[in-house]
Specification:
This protein has 401 residues and is of the alpha+beta class. The chain has 9 helices and 8 strands.
Length: 401
């Protein structure tokens, strides 16, 4: 049976020789370069082109045909007189039944099977009355339809790719949803050891953040997948609209992209599920972080209590030391006058001096650390210290006489 063969090779994998060898037994052969692909089109008069070994010569060094071949299509050509018998013969050769038809200018093109088999699509061309292959259809099938079929192949391949990717992502999403429940339950079991509890909460944040990152990455992939697939379908639609040689109604186009459209809907549903899982993980992270904040707040209150105790103890020690040295300094300067002053008065003066000095030094320390300190407090403490020292000086002078 006479056949037309299309072979799509990735442009990046091509490095053609200066004088390529034409395929054996071929009637016509042409090469078309598109934005992404190199399309090889040939007419085989007495065989079906299933093994394109001749394409190996076009590959760059190190590339394999398996890697470079993006897809292919076979159009079986039937005579006008063949009728249903020719169609049944084509279905037997391809192993697939006619799925839907396209009306061409001089004949009818049938898609055999509703999906590709090993990245290959099968078609059957039934010529109309008047010849085996109408001139208009011949031009269309050899020049225009290869580009349309290549884009259709791209849509089908991307649909399968994103569908497989979506299934893997959905499986991982279910595992991560289960992991979320397990992590929250395990980390929130009461712990006697506060340090151990804090460690468990920090580990939970790390695990939840890692899983959240995976979900966010998968969400981006799924969204990118269905948007890309929708764009490729629109590209296919535009190619069909600008080629009047193939009549495709809105209903027919819907049949062409039925499987990819179904995959797009599944990806959109998965996108919604991933968004819900992301919100659950975000809520889980907020809960764990709130728990950490509560633990830290409780610890902070305890530390503040300890700090106040330490500050009081340090202030008291400072007071005792200053009081001792004030008394010792007064005694060293005017021992006789100090003995003449009543002990209660000297005690009150030295303790008052120590208290004011402690208070004044604390105010100055707070001011140096950047805290707001009322100037009136500084002036009051400084004035009190000056007054006490003046009283001590006056009493020392009077006692000395």
């Amino acid at each position: 049976m006479k056949a037309i063969g299309y072979f799509y090779l990735l442009l990046d994998e091509i490095d053609p020789p200066s004088q390529p060898l034409p395929p054996l037994g071929i009637e016509r052969f042409s090469i078309t370069v598109t934005e992404r692909l190199v399309i090889f089109v040939g007419v085989w008069p007495d065989q079906i082109p299933l093994q394109p070994d001749f394409l190996q010569q076009y590959l760059r060094p190190g590339a394999t045909l398996e890697e470079a071949l993006f897809g292919s299509a076979v159009i079986l050509l039937g005579p006008a007189a063949g009728g249903e018998d020719a169609l049944r013969a084509a279905e037997e050769v391809s192993g697939r039944s006619a799925a839907f038809d396209f009306e061409l200018t001089g004949g009818r093109l049938s898609r055999l099977g509703d999906c590709r088999e090993w990245d290959r699509a099968w078609y059957f061309y039934q010529a109309g009355v008047g010849g085996e292959l109408a001139t208009e259809d011949q031009i269309f099938l050899l020049k225009e339809f290869p580009k349309i079929e290549a884009q259709w192949s791209r849509v089908d391949n991307l649909a399968e790719y994103y569908a497989d990717q979506g299934r893997a992502i959905n499986t991982e999403k279910r595992e991560l949803d289960i992991k979320l429940s397990g992590t929250l339950h395990e980390r929130f079991v009461p712990r006697k050891n506060e340090r151990e509890a804090m460690g468990q909460l920090e580990l939970a944040v790390e695990e939840l953040s890692s899983s959240y990152g995976k979900l966010a990455g998968n969400y981006r992939l799924v969204r990118e997948g269905h948007l890309t697939l929708a764009d490729e379908i629109q590209t296919l639609r535009r190619q069909l609209l600008k080629n009047p040689g193939m009549a495709v109604s809105t209903q027919k186009f819907g049949e062409m992209i039925q499987q990819p459209t179904r995959h797009i809907q599944k990806l959109r549903n998965l996108e919604t599920d991933l968004r819900y899982s992301l919100s659950n993980y975000q809520a889980g992270l907020n809960v764990v972080r709130s728990r950490i904040d509560l633990v830290l707040s409780k610890k902070s209150v305890e530390l503040q209590g300890q700090s106040l105790t330490m500050q009081f103890a340090a202030g008291f020690i400072e007071f005792i030391i200053i009081d001792y040295y004030v008394m010792a300094l007064w005694k060293a300067v005017a021992a006789d006058a100090l003995h003449a002053i009543p002990a209660l008065i000297s005690f009150l003066l030295t303790t008052s001096t120590a208290a004011v000095v402690v208070y004044l030094t604390h105010l100055l320390a707070e001011k140096k650390q950047g805290e707001e300190v009322e100037s009136s407090h500084l002036w009051l403490a400084g004035g009190a210290l000056a007054l006490i020292l003046a009283i001590m000086a006056i009493l020392t002078i009077l006692a000395g006489h």
